[in-house]
Design a protein that fits this description.
Layout: H1 2-19, H2 54-57, H3 85-110, H4 116-125, H5 130-156, H6 160-185, H7 189-226, E1 252-254, E2 260-262, H8 277-285, H9 303-334, H10 336-341, H11 344-380, H12 398-405, H13 407-423, H14 428-451, H15 457-463, H16 465-475, H17 478-521
Antiparallel strand pairs: 1-2
């Protein structure tokens, strides 16, 4: 067969030679003939074209003989393919389209309900809002009492047990006093919730202030007994500097916020130099719950950074208020009838419908409080530790979420509840349960008291985090566990909100309507 192909090639070459012969000199070209130079690029051969040999024609045919190999589809786990960025973009587009449809549906159904000024007017014109301001001012009395007790303890060396009793009494009154006033006077619930939050933070701060000063007294007593006090030795409340590192760079620490913090050992205060009004009020103002004698400080206030955070705070706060008025309030009121009739199908529909706007507002709250507001306070006071949260959005366990969602509370609970319990012989699980119970009590304290009803929905929601953490850890891994954590956040909050609003509506409106109807009938 190969010989036949070669004979065909020779015949083709001869025919091409005959066609390419030029006319003899002196003869005129025929009208139908064209020279090689007159030929265009329209697929005609030129003089430079050479005919392909057999080897050249079939040189790449071996690679086309086999086009299949053993391989998995891209969507199979065994393929090892993990670039699904296009699907992520698709989800974002679909989410934007779905949210846009919900916004349009809400506007067509209810019209524009946004009135940002109404919130301020309600709080300003309501005479029962002023007790909330008075309660905030009264927190200063408890701060001054704690400061006075520390002064007396340092001067007269009172008994530690007596001092503990007086301190605990002060904290108990601080936590109970607002409850009594709010229950009797019934001020605005929103303001009352903020007052209780400030009171709870003041209790946690003053407890940390008392415990840390007590630790300093104990360390000083131990040092005196061992007779190892030296002027060159750093105070017991501060870590020892590492040996052989006495360079100029030792006193400078580069912080993540971009500022260099200068730590001059001569300016470090030791106990009892820290017992002064400036120190305690600085601690009460900075965005942390854990006291220490020397806080890390920045050199300057970054004005541009501060302005950006203020703009974010104002914008997101107004956006959240508008979303509550336009989206949350109508949905909540429309959900009252299904919850009253215990219509499970419609209840589920209302919960899912409320989940999206509620979660969006919750994310706005996280950003404008934990990032914008706390950074504003930290920047003004030059407080250098800005780790108010970690990557809780990557949580693959419930415990990881609660450890990284609110760093100030987590540090306080670990320092003053978990570690002391571990030192006393309690197990790690018992310490974790104690922290969850404390958090559940504080959540219920901030919700039930302003609403004047004790339904324990917030407490139950927090306590249920314990079995939820076990379930997620046992049955879910990696991104499935992260999805389970997100689902618990997205669904859990609307359920608690609707339960509280339903009970509040039943107590304050349905009973009033029934009494008015009975009176009119009589």
């Amino acid at each position: 067969m190969l010989s036949n192909l070669e004979n065909m090639d020779k015949t083709t070459k001869e025919s091409n030679t005959l066609h390419q012969r030029k006319p003899s000199k002196g003869k005129k070209k025929d009208l139908g003939e064209t020279s090689v130079s007159d030929q265009g690029d329209g697929g005609m051969e030129t003089a430079a074209d050479e005919p392909l040999t057999t080897e050249q024609k079939y040189s790449g045919i071996e690679g086309d003989l086999s086009v299949h190999s053993a391989q998995d589809s891209l969507l199979s786990n065994a393929s090892g393919f993990n670039n699904y960025r296009g699907f992520l973009n698709l989800c974002i587009v679909l989410l934007a389209m779905s949210s846009g449809r919900l916004v349009l549906e809400n506007l067509l159904k209810y019209g524009i309900l946004v009135d940002p000024i109404s919130w301020a007017s309600v709080l300003w014109n309501d005479p029962y809002s002023w007790p909330n301001v008075t309660l905030v001012i009264c927190i200063n009395y408890f701060i001054l009492f704690a400061f006075g007790m520390e002064k007396l303890m340092n001067k007269f060396h009172l008994s530690e047990k007596l001092f503990d009793f007086l301190t605990m009494s002060n904290l108990i009154v601080l936590i109970v006093f607002p409850v009594v006033v709010i229950t009797v006077v019934e001020p605005n619930p929103v303001g009352a919730c903020n007052v209780l939050g400030l009171s709870a933070m003041a209790v946690m701060k003053l407890y940390s202030y008392h415990v840390v000063n007590q630790w300093c007294r104990q360390l000083n007593a131990i040092s005196k007994k061992k007779k190892k006090i030296s002027s060159k030795k750093p105070p017991p409340s501060l870590p020892k500097p590492p040996p052989n590192e006495q360079s100029d760079e030792t006193n400078e620490t580069v912080k993540a916020n971009g500022d260099v913090v200068h730590v001059d050992p001569k300016q470090l205060q030791v106990y009892p130099q820290n017992i002064n009004l400036k120190d305690i009020y600085y601690f009460m103002a900075v965005p942390t719950l854990c006291y220490e004698l020397n806080f890390p400080r920045t050199e300057r206030v970054r004005k541009r950074f501060l302005i950006r955070r203020i703009v974010e705070l104002v914008f997101l706060l107004q956006l959240s208020i508008c979303l509550i008025q336009q989206w949350i309030v109508p949905l909540v009121f429309n959900a009252m009838k299904p919850f009253s009739e215990m219509d499970v199908t419609r209840m589920t529909e209302r919960i899912l419908k409320l989940a999206v706007p509620n979660h969006f507002i919750w994310l706005c709250f996280f950003y404008f409080y934990f990032h914008s507001f706390l950074n504003i306070i930290g920047e003004i006071l030059r407080f250098a530790d800005r780790e108010f949260y970690r990557d809780w959005w990557n949580s693959e366990t419930v415990g990881y979420f609660w450890r990284n969602w609110n760093i100030p509370v987590h540090r306080w609970a670990r320092r003053h509840i978990y570690k002391p319990m571990r030192r006393k012989g309690f197990s790690a699980y018992q310490g974790q349960v104690a922290v969850f119970v404390m958090s559940a009590v504080m959540h219920e304290y901030m919700v039930s008291v302003p609403l004047h009803m004790f339904k324990l929905w917030a407490f139950a929601g927090m306590v249920m985090q314990i079995p939820l953490a076990m379930v997620v850890s046992m049955f879910f891994r990696r991104h499935y566990a992260n999805m389970a954590v997100w689902l618990s956040i997205i669904i859990g909050q609307p359920v608690a909100i609707l339960m509280y609003v339903h009970d509040y509506y039943v107590i304050n409106y349905m009973k009033t309507t029934a009494l008015n109807g009975t009176a009119s009938a009589i």
